Amino acid sequence: MNLKTFFLYIVLLLALVSCHQTKTPKTTKNDEQKKEQVVPPASPPLPSDTSSYDSPRFADRIEEQTQQLIKMNDAGLFDKLHQKLTTTLSADQKDYFLGHPNLAVLAIAKGNIFENGSGDLGYLLYNKDNHHIEITLFDHKRNTYNTLYKELKVVNTLQNLDCSSSFGSLDYLVASELIYQEDYIRLNNSNYLIDDNSFDVTDISTNKNFDLQQGCLNKKFSKEAMANSLCVPTSSVYANFQCLKYNKKKQIFEIYFSQEFAD
Description:
Blueprint: H1 3-20, H2 29-36, H3 59-74, H4 77-86, H5 91-98, E1 103-111, E2 120-127, E3 132-139, E4 144-147, E5 154-156, H6 170-180, H7 182-188, H8 192-195, E6 200-202, E7 216-217, E8 229-233, E9 241-247, E10 252-259
Helix pairs in contact: 3-6
């Protein structure tokens, strides 16, 4: 084999090897950005709360609480409060309760609860049929009366936070405090919900009753979102509250703030 033929043979061999090589795709900047922009899966939605009245775990306590509430009602304590409070209501609201004599009004909150204007009302009620305390809300735009934990879903957005320490649903907690206040109610024809207007629709970012630094706050709620919060006092002794905000998009009430400490 002469030198010329040898070099020709080498060139053909290199060309053959090059044809069989697999081309490595180039990684572009866009490909790298796509990898970085992968969105993690969304967290599952929090479950709706159940009233303690419907929880088997509270069955023994509910039976005891029911007997105490019946005793207070039989003594006329709730009817006296009802008569006192309903005198302040408009004619259509009075008519509603005249048509529902099983309901006794124990406290009233007024404000823009459903974000449709300031004509909404919150009622803390004693139901003489089931002997439970209920929190019923009047939506003035729809002209409807619905109850938390029943027609109105409640989600506790604090339930997975370290600062959360709720020992029952709001209706159950208020009932416990009213029982604790039995003697006070008998002597004064009033209760802790009424005395300081603590059952209220308010802006907790500006209301001095609330300490956002010391309380348990869902920090996803901005201060702008804290207006028109429905706040329920859960103690007749301490400045303890739980506050809910109506989520119009999800059509649920979200507990997003609570405080449980002494004055």
